[in-house]
UniProtKB/TrEMBL annotation:
TM regions (residue ranges): none
Top-level taxon of origin: Bacteria
Organism: Amycolatopsis heterodermiae
UniProt feature, compositional bias: Pro residues: 137-147
Pfam families: YbaB_DNA_bd (PF02575)
InterPro entries membership: YbaB-like_sf, YbaB/EbfC
Name assigned to this protein: YbaB/EbfC family nucleoid-associated protein
Region (Disordered): 104-169
UniProt feature, compositional bias: Basic and acidic residues: 123-135
Length: 169
């Protein structure tokens, strides 16, 4: 290969890398996403890095819901938006990364999909008593722990024993 051919080949490769880098830049800028609740009352937006950029709640979103339920719905939508943004970043990086270690690193940070809503647990039903039945008595409380035996009273005369040295005669 002549030096001119090598230089032309090198310049072509640089142009391809620049083109892929520009595609990545454009894709990365568009990787942020917005997710809306099924009823349209909550909207959550995230940037490509997963940070929260927008949160909109309609009056209907807060009507008749507890704070805990509303927070749960917002967090669920935020996690979905963060996952979608991570998938978009990975898709934008694909032309640059191909099947490289860098691409595997980027896709390794994509959070797993949220599981579908689990079925609500069945309510606990109390057993109804028949007219002739008595309610079950509560089990007796456990016995108290055994007490330690009391120490025998202290006898001051025995402190030094019964040695002849200490005795007065």
């Amino acid at each position: 290969m002549t030096p001119e051919e090598w230089l032309a080949n090198f310049e072509t490769k640089i142009a391809e890398v620049r083109e892929k880098a520009e595609e990545f830049r454009v894709g990365l800028e568009a990787a942020g996403t917005t997710v809306t609740s099924p009823d349209g009352t909550i909207r959550v937006g995230v940037a490509p890095n997963g940070s929260l950029t927008d949160l909109q709640l309609s009056d209907a979103a807060v009507a008749g819901k507890s704070g805990a339920k509303l927070a749960e719905e917002i967090l669920k939508l935020a996690r979905k938006a963060q996952r979608d943004a991570a998938v978009n970043v990975a898709a934008a990086f694909a032309p640059l990364g191909g099947d490289s270690e860098a691409m595997h690193m980027v896709t390794g940070y994509v959070p797993p999909e949220e599981p579908e809503e689990p079925p609500a647990p069945e309510p606990i039903r109390e057993r109804r008593l028949w007219q002739h039945e008595e309610p079950e008595a509560a089990p007796p409380p456990p016995p108290p722990p055994p007490r330690r035996p009391a120490r025998p009273p202290r006898d001051d005369d025995d402190d030094f024993g019964d040695s002849a040295i200490m005795r007065r005669d």
